Amino acid sequence: MRRSVVVLFVALLASAGLLVGARAAIAAPAAADEAVEIDLYGLETCPHCHAAREFLEDLATEVPGVVVRYHELTGDRTAQLAYTEAVESRGESPGAVPAIVLGERLWIGFSASTADAIRDEVERRLAAEDVSAPAEAPTEERDTVDVPFVGAVDVGSSSLLTSTVVIAFVDGVNPCSLWVLSVLLALVLHSGSRGRVALVGTTFLTVTTALYGLYIVGAYSLLSYVSYLTWVQRLVAAVILVFGAVNLRDAMRAAPATLAIPGSAKPGIYRRGRALVSPERSVLGVMAGTVVLAAGVSLAETPCSAALPLLWTNLLAAADPGAAVAASLFALYMAIFLIDELLLFGAVVVTMRAARLQQHHDRLLRLVTGAVMVGLAVAMLAAPELLESVTGTLVVFGGAALVVAVLLVGRRFSALLWPTSMPSDGR
Predict the structure, then answer these.
(1) Is the model's pTM score more than 0.90?
(2) DSSP one-letter code for 103
(3) Model pLDDT for residues 200-211, shown as the tens digit of each residue
């Protein structure tokens, strides 16, 4: 009898042990053979790859069960083939790094939003959810545009395309650059030579566009290097918010604009412009004088024109679309940016009549520019996810348009808001 009791007790203990072991096996979400494995494909020269690797290594240290494997693609044919297979099997085209693979999920590029998505996926898998079918990734809207001299280009996210088109157009109607071009052409018209007008206008637009393009490329290079730092993106957005608020204030008051070409620089612009009219000047002399004038103007108008390209490059760096897409969007931006100045230039050459930018034009352009800046900056600070979809992007621009409409209506009813007479600022 005693032996039977002992046997029964031992059997109960064994059963309890098996039950506890089974429960532990079910509760353990990340056993050694069930680790969450993440593969990172990158290049030693890629700053975003370094940022992604640092994040993933920190994640593996913080979260037990996460295993990170880094594959350097430089000079490693095996890693290159594995990268190509991993990307293509998930429906993407190889060509951009970093590429981060977690199960069936794939992320190309790295930013703060990418880090959040990876952390969420890891937590979901470690929570013992059904990972046989991964969480549905947001569908990336893609679009194709015809870029002048480039051809049909897939520009990735349509929301980024929308932002590029709108910001480039608003940037193109920059009151400072339009004023300088209109004044310069008006002065050269006194020569009575359509050829000289065409030469001065073409040279001026070529130089200023080249310098503007260099500024945009430099800003993008810097921001793309540190775009994974959320505080940098927010700092840029805060600066843009200040610039936008100043433009809105300038549009609604009688005082001269704050963000404008300094009054001290305008006599020099007039003087150099008149010098181009001199019949003694050779073609090379006219071109050289225009180049010097264009370079000086580009520097003088920096406070007026720097904010919008900075805003766009911040959006582009945060999205991290890859070098090919970024170059295509840059070409598109510059093409749209030049449209209004080319129209003004062409009209003057054809008609040989001056087209001056008036005071009320200046204020309207500042109103539109300020509203776009404020709308995008607020979205980047408060709800950056809005700018990741076409609908959200259109909502942001629609809000800016609504602000412009309300203030334009206010012009009809409030003399304080829109004074009818304004002091001249030398334009």
Answers:
(1) no
(2) T
(3) 888 888 988 899
